[in-house]
Amino acid sequence: MPKVDKNEYQCFNKCNNKDAEMVHDNIDLNKLFIFREVVLAGSFSKAANNLRQPKSRISRVISSLETELGVQLIYRTTRQFQLTQAGTELFDRISPLMLELKNSIELVTSDKDELSGLIKVTVPEDLGIELFSKLCHDFLELYPRVQIGLHASNSIVDLVKESIDVSIRIGRSKDSSMIQKKIGQVEMIFVMTPEIFRRYQPRKLDDLEKVPFLAFEALNLSTQKLKITNGKEIKNLKLIPSFGSNNYFVLRSMVLQGTGFCLLPVFLAKPYLASGELVQVCKDWKAEGHPIQILIPQQKEIPKKVRTFIDYVAPRLKQYF
């Protein structure tokens, strides 16, 4: 196991004297790696299972690391697990460094002619279900030695802490620590079934007030104020929902059953508009769009497998937005 001397790596620590600064020679990278895995797993038992090592060894490694650094990193009892301030700050500092190390090793050891290794990706739930199974299938057909770990969730994931390679996010990101690439705009349109359209004949915006509205909202079904635009002017449309959900797949299903109409992202409506199962109404008006972006952590060298995945996915996603 390689060692890190003080000229290459300076490990932060705090002593009783907060102005003191400690520099440690020969920190074993394996201990830092295990510490990081313990934090990510949230327990010694889970980390031991993930690393396929005895729990007793994991505990000894962490105790040894704490002894070397001269600080406690983790508060632990039989029932509790909590990082100390020093543990939190150490974890935050080593995570990006270990990502760089992992990428560097992959660059010098990987087969230049064939991509291989794991690519960890996070996407919003609707994108993951609707689009990414097909994209990932096709990518794996081209590069069979690659593995893809796809995390489909609407929660924001810390890319560095979770060692995520690529994130697809909808909406603006203010995180300057990320490399960002805008690939399109998610547009929201009014849709309903042809039967509902024939029944209510909504030719203009005011006519929508007569049609049952299905809102992207689960907890508050009071009057919904929708900001919409035709490219020239902006209006606030007030509608009272008859149904609400925080899931666009539920809303799409309800619309297809003829419950009413809703605002739906174009990429979720597109197949059903093409088949005639849904129709777009008040076509000149759309809700305010949201940018869709690819984010990756800042790093000196982006791994070839990650660059290739982004180059493959980006133009194909643009077709939907």
Order of helices and strands: EEHHHEEHEHEEEHEEEEHEHEEH
Give the termini distance in whole angstroms.
48 Å
**CATH secondary-structure class of the largest domain:** Alpha Beta
* Fraction of residues in β-strands: 25-35%
Biggest pleated sheet:
9 strands, mixed
- Give the helix level as a range of percent: 25-40%
Q: How would the global form be characterised?
A: elongated
Outline the low-pLDDT stretches.
1-23
Q: What's the total number of strands? A: 15
How would you describe this protein?
With 321 residues, the protein is α+β, with helices and mostly antiparallel strands. The chain folds into three domains: 3-98, Arc Repressor Mutant, subunit A (Orthogonal Bundle); 117-179 and 294-318, D-Maltodextrin-Binding Protein, domain 2; 186-290, 3-Layer(aba) Sandwich (D-Maltodextrin-Binding Protein, domain 2), CATH 3.40.190. Helices cover 37% and strands 26% of the residues. It has nine helices and 15 strands. It has helices at 29-41, 44-51, 55-69, 85-109, 125-142, 194-200, 248-256, 266-275, 304-318, and strands at residues 3-4, 27-28, 74-76, 81-83, 117-123, 146-152, 166-170, 178-192, 213-215, 224-229, 234-239, 241-244, 262-265, 279-281, 286-297. The strands form four sheets. Strands 5, 6, 7, 8, 10, 11, 13, 14 and 15 form a nine-stranded mixed sheet that branches. The protein has a two-stranded antiparallel ribbon with strand order 1-2. A two-stranded antiparallel ribbon has the order 3-4. β5, α5 (125-142) and β6 (146-152) form a beta-alpha-beta unit. The radius of gyration is 25 Å and the shape is elongated. It starts with a strand and ends with a helix.
